[in-house]
Amino acid sequence: MSNSYYFRKIHSLLGVIPVGFFLIEHLLTNYEATKGPEAFLDQINWLNDLPLRLLLEIVGIWLPLLYHAVYGLYVAYQSRNNVSSYGYFRNTMFMLQRVTGVLTFLFIAWHLFETRVQVALGNVAHEALGNTMHDIATNPVIFILYLVGIVSATFHFCNGLWSFLVSWGITIGPRAQRFSTIITMGLFVLMTVMFIMSLTAFTGTEFSVPVEAHTGK
């Protein structure tokens, strides 16, 4: 592509704003599950009550995510990894960024099909998403696959954030880049732990029944 520089810059920007923000929001929403089904449902209802929610989702999430995913797959296909020749830390991170990008794409597509698509088709009510996640989390095989998807998504975002800071001229020197490595990898650990705590929370028996069973409504 003759304008690949600009395509890559847009790809980098969208990976942080708004796709990265969406990942963080999704993390905080799911983390409410650690407080119980009612707290999780309250967060779901708050998101559903946002004004112009569908427009916000299309413009602020799905279109940027689609561009980032499709162009990211194109970049991954084009990339030439030289880890076996050099083995440098950043070359390894470069390779992992491409691998986790593909895994994250597959995971998000699968997760959306199991949740948002089922809601759109009328097979699952918003109020029953906790029950759906319970069924997912209590299946040992799917639980492990979700762990792989979670680690891939959080690593891809956090390591991509490091690249974003470099490519946009925010961390220029080696010292700044080493410092940002510590920060972004620390963020990776924090987000991964919170996501795993959320997924584990859905295994609780309280998510196996409708929320009405807890509230008495």
From TrEMBL:
UniProt entry tagged with the keyword Membrane: yes
Gene3D superfamilies cross-referenced by the UniProt entry: Fumarate reductase/succinate dehydrogenase, transmembrane subunit (1.20.1300.10)
CDD domains (UniProt xref): SQR_TypeB_1_TM (cd03497)
One Pfam entry name: Sdh_cyt
Major place of residence: membrane
Record SUPFAM superfamilies: Fumarate reductase respiratory complex transmembrane subunits (SSF81343)
Subcellular compartments: Membrane
UniProt keyword Lipid biosynthesis present: no
Binding site for heme: H26, H68, H111, H156
Transmembrane residue ranges: 12-31, 51-74, 95-113, 143-170, 182-202
GO cellular component, one term: membrane
GO molecular function: metal ion binding
Keywords from the named record: Heme, Iron, Membrane, Metal-binding, Transmembrane, Transmembrane helix
Listed InterPro entries: Cytochrome_b-558 (IPR011138), SQR/QFR_C/D (IPR034804), Succ_DH_cyt_b558_Firmicute (IPR016002), SuccDH_FuR_B_TM-su (IPR000701)
NCBIfam families to which the protein is assigned, alphabetical: sdhC_b558_fam (TIGR02046)
Source species: Paenibacillus oryzisoli
Record lineage: Bacteria, Bacillati, Bacillota, Bacilli, Bacillales
Protein name per UniProt: Succinate dehydrogenase
